[in-house]
Amino acid sequence: QLKYDGFETAAAQLLDALPRQSLGSSERLSHLVRLGLQSEGTSSKRRGSFEGPELEGVDLECESDEVKRVACPNEFDWVYHTVHKAPVLTATFSNDGNLAATASVDTTIKVLDVDRMMAKSQHQVGDSHPVLRTLYDHNDAVTSLDFHPSAPYLASGSKDCTIKFFEYSRPAVKKASQLIQEVARVNSIAFHPSGDYLLAGTDQSTLRLYDVNTFQCFVSANAKDQHCGPITSIDYTTDGRMYVSSSRDGRIRVSYCTT
């Protein structure tokens, strides 16, 4: 290394010194450094003078005691909270961020107004309650929710093997306006960004695509397009060109949407 750094004289002297030394690896390293500094008296201007007691062996396998500092995570403030009577399994925002929805093992769905939640957090005076609707129409735990990209509809999937569509803009309506009967419990649903299709993943291994207007179901005839176990989660890219699915078979599939 000394030779590559331009200290050819020092390197040659060290090579001559090596055969006469019988030092351990750590002691040899410190001894070579000391010889190099001593042989280059003029190099002190470039490297600084070396003073102090004789160097001890360096343990190259020793772990550093230096504590690595990790940036603290951002702090979050509670804005608003509401409760279900049982564990909550899913929550989602509408595309415009104005609404949120939660669903629970207690079979209920809550639709919340984000502006009203913010007003409550700032202790603003008002009688408007953040929970706009509480929807009751499933017979088992609700596992998945998704807002329609443009229309006032909320889709929900449940362990009762149904996908239901709620028109939440109508205050008096607490029941679904449309439903799709599945053959297995529904684990995940996702609207295509166009709003024309809904992708559904169930305890079966086959992905299902539904036309939202006709509720016609489409499945791939190619077995290679399917998972080998229950589907746990699905979602579209923002441009709708691809979707991703995960399964209990341990696989994650990213697929192009074809017409």
How large is the radius of gyration? Answer: 33 Å
Largest sheet: 4 strands, antiparallel
The poorly predicted ranges are 42-61
Q: What structural class should be given to the helix and strand makeup?
A: alpha+beta
How far apart, in Å, are the first and last alpha carbons?
63 Å
Indicate the overall shape.
elongated
Total strands: 15
Mean pLDDT score: 81
Order of helices and strands: HHHEEEHEEEEEEEEEEEE
Q: If strands are numbered along the chain, what order do they take across the biggest sheet?
A: 1-2-3-4
| SS summary, helix count | 4
The proportion of residues in beta strands is 25-35%
Helix share of residues? 10-25%
What does this entry look like structurally?
With 259 residues, the chain is of the alpha+beta class. It contains 4 helices and 15 strands. Strand 6 (154-158) and strand 7 (162-166) form a beta hairpin. Helix 1 crosses helix 2. The chain is elongated. The protein starts with 7 loop residues before the first helix and ends with a strand. Residues 42-61 have low confidence and may be disordered.
